[in-house]
């Protein structure tokens, strides 16, 4: 609106003289980088879920999916494709 009604020079002045205004609940990514990096590299506590019950499957799953996800569902149908 400023550009349309007052022109580019006024818009430039408005932008150059703008003041910072804190927004509640808005955080900077760099404040959480260490935590996110540790989570990705699986060194952030014990929040990586539970075992499937099969050690070999756990190893395959951990190699395939390096970051934790919300869940994994394995479905098998009896007498199907045998």
Report on the structure:
This protein has 82 residues and is mostly helical. It has one domain. It contains four helices and no strands. The longest helix has 10 residues.
Question: Residue-averaged pLDDT, rounded?
Answer: 78
Class from helix and strand fractions: mainly alpha
Shape type:
elongated
Biggest sheet statistics: none
Order of helical and strand elements: HHHH
Number of strands: 0
- Terminal residue distance: 68 Å
Rg is 26 Å
Beta-strand residue fraction: under 5%
- Tally of DSSP helical segments: 4
Helix content: 25-40%
Structurally, how many domains make up the residues?
A: 1
As residue ranges, the low-confidence spans are: none
Short summary of the structure?
This protein is mostly helical and 82 residues long.
Keywords:
single chain; 82 residues; mainly alpha
Helices and strands in order, then pairings?
Blueprint lengths: L1 H5 L1 H9 L16 H8 L14 H10 L18
């Amino acid at each position: 609106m400023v550009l349309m009604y007052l022109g580019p020079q006024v818009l430039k002045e408005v932008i150059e003289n703008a003041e910072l205004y804190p927004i509640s609940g808005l955080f900077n990514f760099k404040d959480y980088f260490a935590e996110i990096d540790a989570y990705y590299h699986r060194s952030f506590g014990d929040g990586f879920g539970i075992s499937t019950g099969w050690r070999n499957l756990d190893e395959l799953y951990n190699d395939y999916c390096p970051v934790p996800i919300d869940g994994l569902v394995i479905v098998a149908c009896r007498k199907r494709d045998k």
